[in-house]
Design goal:
Elements: E1 2-14, E2 20-26, E3 28-31, E4 36-48, E5 57-65, E6 71-80, E7 87-99, E8 103-111, E9 114-125
Parallel strand pairs: 3-9
Antiparallel strand pairs: 1-2, 1-4, 4-7, 5-6, 5-8, 8-9
Length: 131
């Protein structure tokens, strides 16, 4: 199983025929005060299967951590793969994320316990004049 790409966005969906729609790709969020709540954040992943993935179940695990390494969100799931090469597009929706302070955050993506990607997210504080 290979992670083709992963990104964060304001909105995303997958159509019935497998097309991926993504709006507002981001790696920074802004707030005039902390703690702050971000109502909805989307993570998009696209995975390609290999021959050894046929007829198997794989674990996908996503963690959101802060600069201190504290886990803020922890999502785990399984994907069942059929025969043949497949492209698997997935949209993960994070709602009401609480960010206690400005600074760096990370989304870590794991396949079967092995970290395959880290997405950086920087939270920045704005002054009222900047907002």
């Amino acid at each position: 199983m290979e992670l083709r790409y992963a990104l964060l966005s304001d909105f995303a969906n997958v159509t019935q025929d497998g097309k991926l729609n993504v709006i507002g790709i981001l790696d920074h969020l802004y707030s005039i005060q902390f703690p702050t709540i971000h109502r909805q954040l989307y993570m998009v992943t696209s995975t390609a299967t290999d021959l050894e993935d046929e007829d198997t179940t794989r674990e996908i695990h996503v963690q959101l951590i802060n600069a201190d390494g504290e886990v803020l969100q922890d999502l785990k799931g399984q994907v069942n793969f059929a025969r043949g090469k497949q492209i698997f597009n997935q949209v993960h929706i994070f709602q009401d994320l609480v960010f206690n302070q400005a600074g760096p955050y990370q989304f870590n993506i794991f396949f079967d316990g092995r970290m395959v990607k880290t997405l950086e997210l920087e939270l920045q504080q704005l002054t009222v004049a900047q907002a």
